[in-house]
Design a protein that fits this description.
The protein folds into two domains: 2-172 and 304-315, Ribosomal Protein S5, domain 2, CATH 3.30.230; 175-300, Alpha-Beta Plaits, CATH 3.30.70. The chain has helices spanning 69-74, 76-83, 107-122, 129-144, 150-157, 190-203, 206-227, 230-247, 252-263, 286-294; strands at residues 2-15, 26-41, 45-49, 54-60, 65-66, 91-97, 160-163, 171-173, 179-184, 269-272, 278-283, 298-300, 310-315. It has ten helices and 13 strands. It is of the alpha+beta class. Bound molecules: adenosine-5'-triphosphate, (R)-mevalonate and magnesium ion. Adenosine-5'-triphosphate binds at residues 49, 51-52, 74, 76-78, 95, 97, 101-109, 111, 151, 189-190, 273-274, 278. Pathway: Isoprenoid biosynthesis; isopentenyl diphosphate biosynthesis via mevalonate pathway; isopentenyl diphosphate from (R)-mevalonate: step 1/3.
Length: 316
């Protein structure tokens, strides 16, 4: 019985979320928190995901239909990833995640990357991590309608990544101070928040100036990272958070966390990812972790992952 496993790191956005969707640069890192997608040979196709509380959902490979509309929406990233492959073979597909879904940690990207990586290997393809990244980026965009390459590239490639302005390229950065992060549950998905931001953009000319300012923050953060100027980096995190607040993508709990962090003298904190609740990143210190926990954030394993997605074949 052939089984293929893909282990995918999750990600933290350090600078530039939302602005990257409109061509500005951004910086993200892959982390030690992960998602595992297992594809096992079978006579029918069945999907399970414990973190989505979805078990044994049958998929018809001819028309890719699943049992109910609600489940089909929750599984849309998985279904669209499988749909990339013209030739399909029945398999049991299991998704295990160490964090809750939709918390700003790139779970949508990780589930796509995991399915593309594991299912391609299962079908006999040998994709590189960059090929997996590019395919997954298109799948995410197709499902969400809006979005950048940041999360799919970061979870596929691993490392600390700089996404330059107005291009599809990516550059690896070498240094980063230690990071603490955590998340609270949120009600909106990133796709919904992206649509809200687009409406704000269409209704106000200030929006484009805010995006450009975020772009400047990202460039300065890159310089600060190159020099390991941690003080400047921390200040830029606060500025980035303030700009995201003015776009309307933060939440009271995130704003209170970040403003308290500043008041008690922590060197840097901001929201991370799509926003509306979800994740926050801080420069690591015992005080930062205590603050996150005291505000109900679940701490996330935030060590750097350098490998990106890895694939293991198990034949039994
Ligand atoms: N364990 C999982 N199994 C299957 N699908 C999942 C899983 N985790 C997340 N997803 C899919 O991804 C969606 C969440 O994506 P969303 O972009 O809102 O969150 P995120 O990727 O964690 O946040 P961000 O994009 O801000 O980093 C879920 O609604 C679900 O469709
Ligand atoms: C909000 C956003 O910038 C990051 C979500 O993790 C969306 C994207 O880049 O696709
Ligand atoms: Mg997402």
């Amino acid at each position: 019985m052939r089984t293929v496993e893909a282990l995918v790191p999750l990600k933290l956005t350090l600078f530039g979320e939302h602005a990257i969707v409109y061509g500005e640069p951004a910086i993200a890192m892959a982390i030690s928190e992960s998602m595992k997608v297992t594809v096992k040979e079978s006579d029918r196709t069945i999907i399970s995901s414990s973190s989505l509380h979805i078990g044994n959902i049958r998929v018809n490979l001819q028309d890719m239909r699943v049992e109910s509309d609600q489940i089909s929406k929750a599984l849309s990233f998985v279904i669209e990833a499988l749909n990339y492959f013209e030739e399909k073979r029945p398999a049991l597909i299991n998704i295990e995640s160490s964090v809750d879904p939709s918390v700003g940690l790139g779970t949508s990207a990780a589930v796509i990357v995991g399915v593309i990586a594991a299912y391609s290997k299962f079908l006999g393809y040998d994709f590189t991590n960059l090929e997996i990244a590019k395919i997954s980026r298109n799948v995410e965009k197709k499902v969400q309608g809006l979005g950048s390459r940041m999360d799919t590239f970061t979870t596929s490639l691993g490392g600390i990544l700089y996404f330059p302005r107005g291009s599809e390229n990516v550059e690896r950065l070498s240094s980063l101070p230690e990071i603490a992060s955590g998340y609270v549950k949120r009600t909106a998905t990133t796709a919904e928040i992206l649509r809200r931001v687009k409406t704000v953009k269409e209704n106000g000319r200030e929006f484009n100036e805010i995006l450009k300012l975020i772009g400047l923050v990202v460039e300065d953060a890159r310089d600060a990272l190159d020099k390991m100027d941690v003080e400047t980096l921390g200040q830029l995190m606060y500025i980035n958070h303030g700009l995201l607040m003015s776009l309307g993508v933060t939440s009271p709990i995130l704003d209170e966390l970040v403003s308290t962090a500043r008041n008690i003298g922590l060197p840097g904190c901001k929201m991370s990812g799509g926003g509306g609740g979800g994740s926050a990143v801080c420069l690591k210190s015992p005080k930062a972790e205590l603050l996150l926990e005291s505000r109900g954030f679940k701490l996330v394993k935030s060590e750097l992952n350098r490998t990106g997605v890895t694939i293991k074949e198990i034949n039994s």
